[in-house]
Amino acid sequence: MKQKTSMTDKLSKVVTLTGTAVLINLMFLVFSLPIVTIGQAWCGLMTAIRYNIRGDGWFKGFWTGFKRRFWRGTVAWLIGLPAVLYLLNDIQNALSQEALVPAVGGCIMLAFVAVMLCSALTLNVYIPTSVSNWIRNTVNLGFKALLKLVLAAALFWAPVLIFCFVSGWLIYELAMVFLFAYFALVGLVTTMLLKGNLIDILVDARVDGTLTAEEGLQPVEDGDE
Q1: How far is CA 50 from CA 6, 102, 122, 203, in A?
Q2: What mean pLDDT is reported for the chain?
Q3: Buried b (16+ CB within 10 A) or exposed e, 40-76
Q4: DSSP secondary-structure letter at 223?
Q5: Are 46 and 152 in contact (CB under 8 A)?
Q6: Which residues, 6+ apart, have CB-to-CB distance to 18 below 8 Å?
Q7: What value does the mean pLDDT take over residues 40-60?
Q8: What is the largest CA-CA distance in the chain?
Q9: In angstroms, what is the C-alpha Rg of the chain?
Q10: Tens of pLDDT along 119-174?
């Protein structure tokens, strides 16, 4: 009887987490529809995951992250988006002309831009500092957690890359997958991957006294440091 109750609790937890992931994902997609708000929506997504882990409620987290990180998220996204679109177009043109070297070069540049963008938006959520320190921490995180950020950025941009290079009925099949919990899972993976690096930057920022006075400074729960 005890075993049955335990399995029921586990199943209930899985169902709850799955439902939460789907809802967070849908919020991210809805707030990303204007395109220029994808950066801010990413901040909301990451904050929602953080709040949900702490037990503070994912909806409150999403809205808080979207509002509080709106302007910096806008700046980072509007700087990175034109570069990303240009490089995607450049890669497509190179592939259509079977020019392998320019295509590979474009992919490398795209990875660099995506990594810096992912680094800037993630730090925008977890470690509130002045603009100058935000830029410095973005560069530091970009170099210290390069492989982790490459993976996170690749996951984040996977739908765009797939929709650019895949045509026909497969697009519609893939679109249904991304409508569910894809981006919420990407956000969770990113949080887990960068946890150690974020703690290190947070500790340094506390020592330097560069943190701004703001609620929820810790990227992880107290005691994990």
Answers
A1: 26, 39, 11, 18
A2: 81
A3: bbbbbbbbbbbbbeeeeebeebbbbbbebbbebbeeb
A4: T
A5: no
A6: 181
A7: 87
A8: 66
A9: 19
A10: 999 998 888 888 888 999 999 998 889 999 989 888 888 877 676 666 666 666 66
